[in-house]
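Session log. Operator J.P. requested a structure for one protein chain; no other inputs attached. Running the standard single-chain path with token output.
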Amino acid sequence: MNSGLLAQRRFAPFFWTQALGAFNDNLFKNVLLLLLTFVAVPRYGWDTGLLNNLAAGLFILPFFLFSAWGGTLADHLDKQRLVRRLKLLELATMIAAAVAVWFELFGLLLALLFMMGTQSALFGPVKYAILPQHLAATELVKGNAWVNLGTFVSILLGTLLAGVLASLEGALGRAAIATSLVAIAVVGVVISLKIPAAPPSATGRVRWRPLSGTWRVMRDGLAEKKVRPALIGISFFWFLGACYLTQLPAWVKDVIHGSEGAVSFLLGAFAVGVGLGALLCSRLSAGRLELGLVPIGALVIGVSGIELAAQSSFVGEQLTLVELLAMTDFWRMSTLFALVGLGGGLYSVPLYTLMQLASRDERRARMIAANNILNALFMILSAVFGIVVLSVMELSLFVLFACLGWSALVVGVALLMRNPRPALRLLIFALIQMLYRLRCRGRQHVPATGPALVVCNHVSFMDALVLGGACPRPLRFMMDRPIYENPWVNWFFRIAGAIPVDSDRRDPGGVRRALEEVSRALRNGEVVMIFPEGRLTPDGDVHAFRRGLDLVLTRDPVPVVPAALSGLWGSWTSNKDGKALTKWPRRLRARVLLVFGEPIPAGYSPRRTLERRVRGLKRAADQSLSRKLGGPI
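Structure written below.
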């Protein structure tokens, strides 16, 4: 994933604003916990467990009270102004926190933790609702990947800095903590001034109704059929993450027999894994929403979690981080924690993107608010789950981690069985990337939603795979029935949603049945691909489009996206120098260019017009490849 978005004003200021917010949030929260544990408890004799649970409750409670209100505010106000006001609220909170740290006012610090939770609850909906207004649909996966990476790295750095600052003694430590909190908040406010305008998507009055508003937002979010899977899926990720991170100190103490340094190291491994998973998701998605990564991510979490639970306890007492780093078993365990995080990155980024794309503009922030509320519920459920397994049932951490791993594995397998097509499409894309140096242009011309027809020249038997893997949306495609019914590959074509077609000469009514299936797909809002030439080109040129294209568009007038492939003529799957598939492959990793043209509106796409468009795109693609290769292709 390149850093192009980070150089653009429409994304960079917001990215750094939210990253600094997450950094300061975790710095303040962890400094507070350390001060309570190592200063307040010994000084006043308070109960450590009660204080930690009280702090967790004070931080989570605002998500129930204010998330719904935050979603409504984000829908009804300019998100740019809302972000700035929330950053000013953060600054005011941090100034008060600096005073409380300096004078060691622990009661005030707990109250300010509630304020910081409130700021986070209000910022959450606008955090993801603003991205679709500043990024194209093909950039959302990359934008979400950067946001996830920035968030988890900020969490890690904030946690580590909290440990460093809390270790400083006396006035020096208090001054360093107070200065850091205020300075980071000030930088966040300054950067937020650069965020571009993001006009409101809804109108009307905004009222704060803590209980009824929360219930209404939750009900509305779960009632949206397209959004509901994303909400539940993301919340399951936070359930797993909360379980792992909550039990991490106990795992280090009881299993590894390590010190606080080992906790930070494993937390860093997990955070780096999530960041790498987000980057890998962006790379594999190539600007598309790849829901096939969700079950793959769940499987990675599951396998890694089960293997983590199978590790043995270390031998020794209070092993230092230096001693642990010399042990192979510790590196194996760190790798497994990183793989759990990597699976989480693969799993969560597509779901956040789905939530953004599937939400209506005027309700998007409220859907994100519903997600935040559900996340908080699942994190509370994770605490209850940990108490039941470890305290009530008196089972070990190994059993708890095994339960987490097997639950993720079951979710991954269930998702694959329910809908294998997205994962198959992803594997096709990976295969195409290995076989060819594929470049795509104009993918944004494929409509983000609704039915559409893609028409392309037909060069080789790999064309459908190249188009299916590169298109930003899943494609249904027509193909010859004899090939479709081949027992070796029929299972693949059925999963891929291919539509078999046969000539009336061989199967009377075959064309009619194929056209009816195409019509059903288009009326269901799908994208269908057709090769209007009806056969592989015998000479590399685009040949006359057949009348079947007119029949399809007469039945269902939909937008048509012309496309052209260049670079596959001469491959062993084309008809050059002999019939396709009868020659040995003579080149690997050939340069291939796929170009999508501007869509032609429904009702304005006669066959001759489309043929001219495809010919023009093919000429331009051939010339582009020719310039790169230094001669005719």
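Operator note: Residues 218-417 form a domain with the Growth Hormone; Chain: A; fold (CATH 1.20.1250.20).
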